[in-house]
Amino acid sequence: MSKPQPWLVTGAAGMLGQDLVAVLTGRVGRPVTATTRAELDLTDPTAVRAAVAGHAVVINAAAWTDVDGAESREAEATAINGDGVANLAQACAETGARLLHVSTDYVFPGNATRPYPEDAPTAPVNAYGRSKLAGEVAVAKLLPDTGYVVRTAWLYGAHGPNFVATMLRLAAEREQLDVVDDQLGQPTWSYALAGRLVELGEAALAGTAPAGTYHGTASGQTTWYGLAREVFAVSGLDPDRIRPTTSDRYQRPASRPAYSVLGHGRWSAAGMAPLPHWRVMLAEALPLSGPPAPWKVA
């Protein structure tokens, strides 16, 4: 029996990247090359080509993620989220590797009233969304048969700053918290998403998952206020310490979509069910977040 071909994970030091490496090395036992931003410059085509060589699947978890910073530095954000992704896609086209590229709900305008299907028209409302859309376009153009775009949103996990971690940190510092209740989305556990990405990569290698766009978010929907209350409830804290407020109380450089709920119809084509309900994910995630997970309250 031949040895399984290695996988490449970019952005391996990030929240999702660390979970991807953990799933690949622990759960499924695949050989992995894990590269951090310091180790692989996606804007360098030569370096990208060398990194991709010899790998069967590339999962791109590297990105410019400073949403507000992108408003004043859009060219820099696009160099990573757009041009860098194009470099990866070109390298994969040359070697035959499958590319799984992680994108975002921010490619949509956020003015819908029903979940966005995978083929809904895109219309980003901020520079970050435009930069991520450029990456999606590159994957579709360069890898029509072997490229996969997986949009996600509202990620939280054990490795890195996120909303869940912030809520439990603030719970130890303040008696009451004001949280916006006018933005809808799907809180998604990064470890669960990592597992789904690996499953999709395996299906891509097996030829059972058609190339294209998938939505990697939890089922169900809630607001940031609803999520904060559930975080407190699951953690044994009083959810009534959370008070609802509106987005206009928090002015930021970049506009945020008010509606970030994504549809999951495409998974059936790959023979997979959508990710679980966000409450199920959260209940599973929080008990696993013992020290030194960043959201654990002493």
From TrEMBL:
Listed GO MF terms: dTDP-4-dehydrorhamnose reductase activity
Name under which the protein is recorded: dTDP-4-dehydrorhamnose reductase
Domain RmlD-like substrate binding, residue spans: 8-286
Pfam families (alphabetical): RmlD_sub_bind (PF04321)
Primary role: Catalyzes the reduction of dTDP-6-deoxy-L-lyxo-4-hexulose to yield dTDP-L-rhamnose.
Keyword NADP: yes
Record-linked InterPro entries: dTDP_dehydrorham_reduct, NAD(P)-bd_dom_sf, RmlD-like-bd
Enzyme Commission no: 1.1.1.133
Source taxonomy: Bacteria, Bacillati, Actinomycetota, Actinomycetes, Micromonosporales
Key words, A-Z: NADP, Oxidoreductase
Entry annotated with the keyword Transmembrane helix: no
Family membership noted in the UniProt record: Belongs to the dTDP-4-dehydrorhamnose reductase family.
Pathway(s) served: Carbohydrate biosynthesis; dTDP-L-rhamnose biosynthesis
PANTHER family linked: DTDP-4-DEHYDRORHAMNOSE REDUCTASE, METHIONINE ADENOSYLTRANSFERASE 2 SUBUNIT BETA
